[in-house]
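S2.1 Query sequence (SDR family oxidoreductase)
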Amino acid sequence: MGKGRLKIALITGGSKGIGKALGTGLAKVGYQVILTGRHEKDLKKTVQEIVSLGYQKPIYYILDITNSGLITQTIDAIAAQFGRIDVLINNAGIHRKGTLDLSEKDFRELLETNITGQFLVAQAVVPLMKRQRSGYIFNVVSRSATVGFPGTGGYCASKWGLRGLSESLYRELTPIGIKVTALCPAWVDTDMANRAGSPLAPEDRIQTQDLFHTIEWLLNLSDGACVKEVVITNPLSL
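Output structure tokens follow.
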């Protein structure tokens, strides 16, 4: 990615949980972090917290990843300011309990956010990475994309779809210098896990820092090494 040049990392769903932790970690190691999310109050709070740690001040954009027009505007603005995006972390997503008891509305929202939204962001960013002839895309998927858990069929379906999209991108883009990795963690210690009813105590869950360290390791691999997906599980929920 070129030593000595400021590296640009775009993180969707960057104001809380996994996205916030990844943004903080990348800012710590010298990236210009760009956060997106739907709520400006949460984005501002995260930016302030990162700055208070002495790291490069992140930029933020209010973004609903189901809005293709707004995605295009956001990526165009980033390209105009920085000329490139080195890392895309497709992290924004939602969780809903239920399988056939899900309402049609909830099922469609799961697919619209967890698959279509991720697709739209990648669709907007990849042309820029192709012009750069470099880049790294991390799709934050879930262990629910590897196991069809009972009671969460809608969520599992959306994440299996994202995992399939990620593998297709991996096979299409890696040969031209753009790496793609699907991150498939089990229960992570976040507010979303609390709302989803995680059976694990917070200390028994994957920590958000574990995901940052995973990404940091992947970013430091040589150009000759590529990783399609990483599945991270909990000792108590194998």
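The mean pLDDT is 95. The chain is about 45% helix and 15% strand.
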